[in-house]
Design goal:
With 194 residues, the chain is α/β, with parallel strands linked by helices. Helix content is 42%, strand content 21%. The strands form two sheets. A five-stranded parallel beta sheet has the order 2-7-1-8-9, sandwiched between helices. Bound molecules: guanosine-5'-monophosphate (5GP).
């Protein structure tokens, strides 16, 4: 007999800025009812259109430091001069409640999560090519030339570590990538049913 609930699990989704993680995760939420996506805290300035409490919790350096000191973050990292972190409480509560908790974070954060939660599943989203990644970053129009250059440099470092992730998905065809991510999350979650 199949029981009606599956246990909570932790998923990390990483990959270069511009690889399409956000779009994929937004689609995952529509496809899998028990997925819960963590909202990170960051010291970065909001981009146009970003809403505090929706895209990120935008905080000052002092507020971020307080969270670090109080052990309020599950992981955190510095990316292009700004700090980003995962609030511990929400993620832990949702795992305990049986949700499939998704963290959209960089590779430095991904490896910290693996250290602390060896059962976490690490998914790496790859762009079809570096040229395509650069075109997407520039086309987005939200970043200065300096920020695009910093993100491309970070992308090369992130790509060099992709083999350490549990699974790699190339975001070439969006529908195929959504289907692959959905299948992976469901497959891992089903193993914990019962
Ligand atoms: P962006 O400035 O483009 O929103 O994010 C820059 C990078 O920081 C992306 O790779 C994004 O996934 C990552 N990031 C966002 N939130 C977190 C977080 O809470 N922790 C870590 N380690 N990285 C994060």
């Amino acid at each position: 007999m199949v029981s009606s609930v599956r246990n909570g699990n932790l998923f990390v989704v990483s990959g270069p800025s511009g690889a399409g993680k956000g779009t994929l995760v937004a689609r995952l939420v529509q496809e899998v009812p028990d997925v819960w996506v963590s909202i990170s805290v960051t010291t970065r300035e909001p981009r146009e259109g970003e809403v505090d409490g929706v895209h990120y919790l935008f905080v000052s350096d002092e507020e971020f430091q307080r969270l670090v000191d109080d052990d309020g973050l599950l992981e955190w990292a510095t990316y292009d001069g700004n700090r980003y972190g995962t609030p511990r409480k929400g993620a832990e509560e949702h795992i305990a409640r049986g949700d499939q908790v998704v963290l959209e974070i960089d590779v430095q954060g991904g490896f910290q999560v693996r250290e602390r939660f060896p059962s976490a599943h690490l998914v790496f989203i790859e762009p079809p090519s570096l040229e395509e990644l650069e075109a997407r970053l520039r086309g987005r129009g939200t970043e200065s030339d300096e920020a695009v250059a910093a993100r491309l440099a970070a992308a090369k470092v992130e790509l060099s570590r992709k083999m350490e992730y549990d699974i790699r998905l190339v975001n070439d065809d969006l529908e195929e990538a959504v289907a692959a991510l959905t299948a992976y999350v469901n497959e891992q979650a089903e193993k914990t049913r019962g």
